[in-house]
């Protein structure tokens, strides 16, 4: 028999809970609660995949082979499986005009949902509905869903996730079995960030600031990047104007990215010089400051660009970050003065 897997980090309690259930004993509706970014939607997707997987399940309901026809239709982030519908965000009342495919609807409405709930399964097995971060746009939308619970069709499973379950109508909440998701350990957040392609140092930093939530880790990392951008830009405008910059942004960790930001600023400056107001800028947030700079002549710009590229090469050697930044500073000094 094929080995089944269930690739979800953390969520030990929910894993234990569902591993005790079988396809025969699973209920019609579950509500996953817990802080945003602890893996509720990921768990819901992998649970859906488990229910739809065609491989024989000897033990509990959790697990999939990842290779059957069903599994191949369910990706990490999106699904093309006709028996899995996923809707994230507010559920509106009303009907869409287009006859959208089951899984293609962008903003499904309550009525769509109720209609879909009544349809037969395509593959002869389960139909699974994931309503992620659900928010009922109107009480009428919620009431439409209540009809489902009055006479739930066989083999339909509804998985609702919410970090603010108190906002759900009590009539709906009371019909769902609530499963609480714990926050992740920082080692688990680190693993998830690494899986998502973050570099070692960012995975570690994000995990340290995460308080057990991947969402918080991502926000903290974005903020970190924003801070570096602001520091580098401030330094840049001082230097090109011929002033002495205060402090330095350059460390072993920030050097590579900082030089990339400098290139963007220089590139935008050149674009503004040649195209004026019609220039398409990469660093839109610094457009105003860049417009205030005098024109840069193309020879100066080319020279400065070459120096930053050389600095990027130096950054990968043992040369100290402060020296690399100083090298760039000299290349840029007074270019606008
Ligand atoms: Zn499968």
Helix content: 40-55%
- Taking pLDDT < 50 over at least 5 consecutive residues as the criterion, the unreliable ranges are 95-105
Judged by helices, strands and strand pairing, the structural class is alpha/beta
Bound molecules: zinc ion
Overall pLDDT confidence: 87
Main sheet specs: 5 strands, parallel
- The rounded distance between the terminal residues' Cα atoms is 74 Å
Compressed to H and E, one letter per element, the order equals: HEHHEHEHEHEHHHHHHH
Backbone CA Rg: 27 Å
Report strand order across the widest sheet: 2-3-4-1-5
Tell me what you see in this structure.
With 337 residues, this protein is of the alpha/beta class. It contains 13 helices and 5 strands. The chain has helices at residues 12-19, 40-52, 69-72, 110-118, 139-150, 170-173, 186-195, 200-208, 214-240, 255-275, 287-292, 298-315, 321-332, and strands spanning 29-33, 84-91, 127-136, 156-162, 177-180. The chain has a 5-stranded parallel β-sheet. α9 crosses α10. The relative contact order is 0.10. The model is unreliable at 95-105 (pLDDT under 50). It binds zinc ion.
Write the layout of secondary structure elements.
Blueprint: H1 12-19, E1 29-33, H2 40-52, H3 69-72, E2 84-91, H4 110-118, E3 127-136, H5 139-150, E4 156-162, H6 170-173, E5 177-180, H7 186-195, H8 200-208, H9 214-240, H10 255-275, H11 287-292, H12 298-315, H13 321-332
Parallel strand pairs: 1-4, 1-5, 2-3, 3-4
Helix pairs in contact: 4-5, 7-8, 8-9, 9-10, 10-12, 12-13
The chain binds zinc ion.
